[in-house]
Design goal:
With about 260 residues, the protein is α/β, with parallel strands linked by helices. It has one domain: Rossmann fold (3-Layer(aba) Sandwich), CATH 3.40.50.720. The chain contains 9 helices and 7 strands, in the order βαβαβαβαβααβαααβ. It has a 7-stranded parallel beta sheet with strand order 3-2-1-4-5-6-7, with helices on both faces. The protein is globular, with a radius of gyration of 17 Å. The protein starts with 11 loop residues before the first strand and ends in a 7-residue tail after the last strand.
Length: about 260
């Protein structure tokens, strides 16, 4: 009999930045696959509540935790709430992040640089640091970091702070994987290309989007569910020998 690699019954999954886009699709997918899901949001409570409701409809448990991952002490409070509701985290998906605003090099302030670095990379590291001790106690766990094609190509003009933060996540993935692979914790990443999310509604003009589509061999942007599926794969036992990898999900826009 074949194993059902995608049965997450009994697993506790934490997805940060999950009120829309890739994060929401990922949270809802894990919920549909049997996991107890904690999802965080910053401002979009309606989106977070909708995701919780969608998971509840599948008969599984979910909670939404309001978190500003850049605030001092926020990560510890977030993990505390999740553990109080469901127990220790088995699978962490570090998805919270944003470009915040497009700024070219000579416009970029130290404060904005630090904000974007903290939001994307620093928060991911400390979320991982917060869940790893309990993962070690349980004998294993999974961390999936959501980086970006911008980490590989430098991003579009005005995004050097964002692309640098995402590149830090890519390197962090390898460092964490090396340190904890021998102790049962697998750390990998996904690197989405052009995905149909609120990110592009906010930061990308229609003209630029059309140019991007024409450069993608598959001829279209990706769907959040297509990224969520790869995240679930990385979290599953189907990926039991994958460690320190970053999977590019971009319709062929960037090929290794």
């Amino acid at each position: 009999m074949m194993n059902n690699f995608f049965d997450f019954t009994g697993k506790v999954v934490l997805v940060t930045g999950a009120s829309s886009g890739i994060g929401r699709a990922t949270a809802e997918l894990f919920g549909s696959l049997g996991a107890a899901v904690a999802l965080t949001y910053h401002k979009n409570r309606a989106g977070a509540d909708a995701a919780v409701a969608a998971i509840a409809e599948t008969g599984n448990r979910a909670i939404a935790v309001r978190t500003d991952v850049t605030e001092d002490g926020a990560i510890a409070r977030m993990i505390g709430e999740v553990e109080a509701a469901f127990g220790p985290v088995d699978i962490l998906v570090n998805n919270a992040g944003s470009l915040v605003e497009r700024l070219r090099t000579l416009e970029l302030t130290e404060a904005r640089w630090n904000e974007v670095m903290n939001l994307n990379a620093t928060s991911a590291f400390f979320a991982a640091q917060a869940v790893i001790p309990k993962m070690l106690e349980k004998g294993g766990g999974v961390i999936v970091n959501v980086t970006s094609i911008a980490a590989r190509n430098g991003g579009a003009l005005g995004s050097i702070h964002y692309s640098s933060a995402k590149a830090a996540m890519l390197t962090m993935t390898k460092g964490l994987a090396k340190e904890f692979a021998g102790r049962g914790i697998r750390v990998n990443a996904v690197s989405p290309g052009v995905i149909d999310t609120p990110y592009h509604e906010t930061f990308t003009t229609a003209e630029v989007m059309q140019n991007l589509r024409s450069a993608i061999p598959m001829g279209r942007e990706g769907r959040p569910s297509e990224v969520a599926g790869v995240i679930a794969f990385l979290a599953s036992d189907a990926a039991s020998y994958l460690c320190g990898e970053t999977i590019e999900i971009n319709g062929g826009l960037l090929m290794d």
